[in-house]
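In the previous lecture we treated proteins in isolation. Real proteins rarely work alone, and many bind small molecules. This record shows how such a complex is specified: first the sequence, then the SMILES for zinc ion.
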Amino acid sequence: MERIGADIRKLVSYGLRTGLVPEEDEIFTVNRLLELFGLEEPEEEGAANGTEGAEGKAAAGAGSIISQECKYAESPEGQDSKCTAESEGQDSKCTAEPEDQGSAVDADAVLAAELEGILSRMCDYAYGHGLIAENGVVYRDLFDTKIMSMLMPRPSEVIRKFRELCETESPRVATDYYYKLSRDSDYIRRYRIARDMKWIAPTKYGDLDITINLSKPEKDPKAIAAAKNAKQSGYPKCLLCRENEGYAGRINHPARQNHRIIPVTINGSQWGFQYSPYVYYNEHCIVFNFQHVPMKIDHAAFCKLFDFVKQFPHYFVGSNADLPIVGGSILSHDHFQGGHYEFAMAKAPVERSFTIDGFEDITAGVVKWPMSVIRLNGPDSDRIIALADRILEKWREYTDEDAFVYAYADNEPHNTITPIARKRGDNFELDLVLRNNITTEEHPLGVYHPHAKLHHIKKENIGLIEVMGLAVLPARLKEEMAQLKAAILSGANLREDELLAKHADWVEEFAPKYEKIDAFNIDGIIEKEIGLVFMEVLEDAGVYKRTLEGQAAFDRFIESI
Ligand SMILES: [Zn+2]
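The predicted 3D structure, ligand included, written as tokens:
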């Protein structure tokens, strides 16, 4: 039976330590895992050797099995149970004391690595024994999610616990519990998130967050081919539909057996609350309509945002705009994104205030930000919503030819808003980011979209997360920047390099700013310059430019409110 018996024990131990598996469910969980692997009984400890030779296919996974044996030798079972008490104690302490976060992060990384090892060996075993058809990442992801489902509480149990914590403790304790569950269950694949490159880039607008997203794995060719031939299914309708909860997945849709959703009532309608499996920032959550209906920015959307913030005051929440180019990647399913994080835009100050007649109780102002942001602040969310309604109504119909703002072209609407709501002390706050998705021959991807000059770094839509100051840059940049650094240091001609030629203008532009570029400072320079490109990306996406003329045009709109 090889090491599978040991790994089943390890996984159940992981479940017990993380709290996924209550003590009472230990034997039950072992038995479910035995069934999944087609085993009739757990092997006796220490009786693992001697049978592997019989299984020719298992040789493929032998390398990882051997290396894991060494790891086991270092941490015998007895030590594990000691860790349990320690790490649990540490967790609860960390919640109260953020300064201990360093050790909590380490402990979490150790747990994540341990789980990755167990699941990886289990997938090797499953492939060796014909339980998965192919050994690529898509098939392995489907199977390891099925493994994790054996450790999961039912949705009703998670919901009950979440609500109980909300009532007896606080919404923050409840989200802490649910976030931990989403990570421990491997719904959020921590070991993949850890691969993302992240840094802070100082700019005149504040510290922007830059990430190169490496956590979405490249699909293997066999899975791509199989997905092409798979029949198109309408179930679940999309990745955000609630029917994903517990869904086994298929070659062209991820498995979600380890996914649990918390229902929330906002503005009288039923929505779901969950975390993003890709967590771009701390506690990155998604709040989504239980109905598969399109995105819409309107009065109800503002009400829903504030309803959510009132229930979870430690979270901000925002919505993508409801038009292509300036919206997010999913326009077909109404949803918001929020989380426990303060973005550069939230920290950016108001640079000029104004008062709207009839709304003297609301503080309004223009935010010092590369995009065009109106910030409303006041103690009464209904009053903020009433003013936001008026601004949205005006903006939808607003045309200013001198500023190249057109509400419509060929009867297609172009103006919309990206709204973000948060609690600020005792007050409520709403940022309204003015958006316009018009295209021209010169800018076929959008006039208020990163221009061609910046496409070597960022070409994709500027959605809610980027608007707030976090760049989600494509994975290709990791390899390109590594090669670019080597080429700069060796003095190679970038224009002759097929991969690097597109970065040549950029390098020629920034290089003269530095006295010298060498092996010691090049990493910092590239990071800083990518940050400055992202700042320009946001300036391009801004409807009103950061010039006297641009800001005067912004004021013309404000006058019209
Ligand atoms: Zn949907």
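Summary for your notes: The radius of gyration is 26 Å. Residues 473-541 form one domain.
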